[in-house]
């Protein structure tokens, strides 16, 4: 729902025309040309022959090219993640029966570590494109996708489940079809949370970039030029100077993206906040103000985007109307029937409608049974193959898996508790104060995007001499991959609190714990639960890089499922890799279904803005 802004002009006078700055159009054209050139350069490298190993140079002159290539992969993975999230969440909300299957599947997918995807994805795509880099590039994009998509899908699903009832009723009264409801109600309502979860997904992509661009499968080594492989090479060589230069380049890229993309989007999306009165303080963006002074942007919005949106609306409406009913071509105009004929005609029409409905229902059921049969056949085949691998595991292997699962569960719980302890108050403070948000948003993004492996040497040096130092370092490293999911969702929830509710709290003089209990916690509760759920999956996923790390040609590992999965993948022990991965997925799904899902339903049922 958009806010209503009253123009500050005298009655009868026209609003002043916007003051265009032509130099802004020139800068926009240069940026578009540079982006197009970068895309062409990145795409041209896909056609180069596949080499066993790519030489990664640690020269500072290579950093701009590496930064551009990594950003291109991140952007491709993000667009794929955004499309997946919108479609997946919308289908899950539209069909409750499908939702009971799709949400647990999403739990499983977010809990499976990136290294468990890695062997099959890389080998399959390399085999599919044996003479070019296309397979390696697609595998890197898909692996980055696995660190971005689940968080966004959960966040958008939570937004769809908490749309106020009066907005749904308004959409019904205005007879909005599926496409109109999606574009005019559901996406605008969930836009604030979707943008903040998108920033978290970008941070998650940077977090796992080192694993996506440089990896080893047994005797074979696969490398792609980029910031991730640069940081990994610097870490393996113990080159602290190159490591710091790579981190500085990453920070520069993050700050540029924040200023040129995320901050303008946050300021623009504030208009979709559901509130009765306009916000006293709204987020601002200097780049957005400059874009509003661009004649090129206004022309594109008025002519290209608006016409394209209208054409898309017409096409979708015609498609939905055609799929819902079949057009009947009239022949000769029949005479007007009498009362008896009208009754008979009504009976015949009702019978024909019933037959068509039964026919469509039978065809739908047949297609559903066929799809279910294919899925069951695939599951049976997968189970048979898994059992064939599991017979090679000894009882001691299963004992190791159980002990590793318990150790990782304890570290995950500790990291989750520590992360929630500081992110909730800090996130609320940032979300409720636009000035703090403008100051700390790039800092939070920068900290969330620093790859864990780049910080692991410092944690090792600080904690390795203490009792349980490696375990403490693993918890600290896991915390780096956990806390940001909670923080970004809490910030989004605090920013989405309507101004009229905050004004009502001020009128009733709510302060301290009463304000938290009556206003803040109920308002952010759906976002907090979503953040905790995605943080749980992120913590389990981060166990790969926190429990098994290679630095300066030395391997540091501790007991845990992450270390077990990483060592199994490195040694090509696929039976142990599959068993450990399934054990991790089973633990995550069990915890989600027994604990987090109940909180999720509580947020859906009790904490609506109705």
Number of strands: 4
Please give the share of residues in helix: over 70%
Largest sheet: 2 strands, antiparallel
Q: What Rg is obtained from the alpha carbons, in whole angstroms?
A: 27 Å
Classified by CATH, the class of one domain is Mainly Alpha
Principal-axes geometry comes out as globular
> What is the overall number of helices?
24
**What is the SS-derived class?**
mainly alpha
CATH level 4 superfamily of one domain: MetI-like
Low-confidence stretches: 1-17, 325-335
Roughly how many Å apart are the termini? 14 Å
- In what order do the strands lie side by side in the largest sheet? 1-2
* N-to-C series of helices and strands: HHHHHHHHHHEEHHHHHHHHHHHHEEHH
CATH architecture grouping of one domain: Orthogonal Bundle
Mean pLDDT: 77
Strand content: under 5%
CATH topology of one domain: MetI-like fold
Short description:
By secondary structure, the chain is mainly α. The protein has helices at about 20-45, 65-95, 95-110, 115-130, 135-145, 150-160, 165-175, 180-190, 190-205, 210-215, 225-235, 240-270, 285-290, 295-325, 340-390, 395-430, 435-450, 450-465, 470-480, 485-495, 500-505, 510-545, 560-570, 575-605; strands at about 215, 220-225, 550, 555. The protein starts with about 20 loop residues before the first helix and ends with a helix.
Descriptive terms for the model:
3% strand; 24 helices; two-stranded antiparallel ribbon; 610 residues; mainly alpha; MetI-like fold
């Amino acid at each position: 729902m958009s806010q209503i802004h009253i123009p500050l002009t005298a009655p009868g006078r026209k609003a002043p025309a916007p003051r265009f700055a032509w130099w802004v159009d020139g800068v926009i054209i240069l940026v578009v040309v540079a982006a197009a050139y970068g895309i062409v350069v990145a795409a041209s490298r896909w056609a180069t022959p596949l080499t066993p190993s790519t030489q990664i140079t640690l020269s500072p002159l290579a950093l701009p090219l590496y930064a551009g290539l990594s950003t291109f992969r991140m952007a491709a993975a993000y667009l794929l993640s955004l499309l997946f999230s919108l479609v997946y969440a919308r289908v899950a909300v539209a069909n409750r029966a499908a939702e009971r299957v799709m949400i647990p599947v999403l739990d499983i997918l977010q809990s499976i570590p990136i290294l468990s995807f890695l062997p099959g994805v890389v080998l399959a795509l390399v085999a599919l494109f044996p003479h070019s880099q296309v397979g390696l590039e697609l595998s890197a994009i898909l692996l980055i996708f696995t660190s971005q998509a689940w968080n966004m899908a959960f966040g958008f699903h939570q937004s769809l489940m908490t749309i106020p009832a009066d907005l749904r009723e308004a959409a019904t009264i205005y007879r909005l079809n599926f496409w109109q409801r999606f574009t005019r109600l559901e996406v605008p309502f969930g836009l604030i949370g979707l943008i903040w979860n998108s920033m978290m997904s970008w941070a998650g992509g940077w977090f796992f970039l080192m694993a996506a661009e440089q990896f080893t499968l047994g005797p074979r080594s696969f490398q792609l030029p980029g910031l991730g492989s640069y940081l990994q090479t610097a870490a393996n060589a113990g080159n602290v100077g190159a490591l710091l230069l790579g981190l500085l380049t990453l920070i520069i890229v993050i700050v540029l993206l924040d200023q040129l993309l995320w901050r303008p989007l946050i300021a623009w999306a504030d208009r979709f906040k559901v509130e009765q009165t306009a916000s006293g303080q709204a987020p601002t963006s200097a780049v957005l103000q400059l874009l509003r002074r661009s004649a090129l942007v206004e022309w594109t919005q008025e002519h290209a985007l608006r016409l394209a949106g209208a054409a898309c609306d017409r096409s979708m409406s015609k498609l939905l109307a055609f799929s819902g009913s079949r057009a009947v071509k009239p022949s000769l105009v029949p005479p007007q029937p009498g009362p008896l004929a009208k009754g008979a005609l009504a009976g015949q029409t009702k019978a024909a409608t019933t037959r068509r409905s039964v026919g469509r229902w039978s065809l739908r059921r047949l297609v559903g049974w066929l799809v279910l049969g294919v899925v069951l056949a695939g599951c049976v085949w997968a189970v048979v193959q898994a059992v064939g691998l599991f017979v090679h595991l000894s009882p001691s292997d299963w004992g190791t898996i159980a002990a590793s699962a318990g150790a990782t569960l304890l570290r995950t719980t500790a990291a989750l508790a520590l992360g929630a302890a500081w992110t909730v108050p800090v996130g609320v403070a940032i979300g409720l104060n636009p000035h703090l948000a403008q100051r700390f948003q790039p800092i939070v993004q920068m900290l969330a995007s620093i790859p864990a492996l780049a910080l692991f040497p410092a944690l090792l040096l600080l904690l390795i001499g203490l009792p349980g130092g490696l375990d403490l370092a693993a918890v600290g490293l896991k915390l780096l991959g956990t806390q940001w999911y909670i923080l970004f969702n809490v910030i989004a929830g605090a920013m989405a609190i309507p101004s009229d509710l905050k004004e009502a709290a001020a009128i009733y003089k709510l302060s301290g714990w009463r304000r938290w209990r009556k206003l803040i916690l109920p308002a952010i509760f759906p976002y907090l639960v979503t953040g905790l759920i995605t943080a749980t999956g992120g913590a389990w996923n981060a166990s790969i890089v926190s429990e098994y790390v290679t630095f300066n040609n030395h391997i540091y590992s501790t007991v845990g499922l992450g270390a077990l999965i990483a060592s199994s993948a490195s040694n090509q022990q696929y039976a142990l890799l599959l068993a450990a991965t399934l054990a991790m997925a089973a633990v995550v799904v069990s915890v989600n279904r027994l604990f987090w899902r109940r909180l999720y339903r509580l947020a859906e049922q009790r904490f609506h803005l109705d």
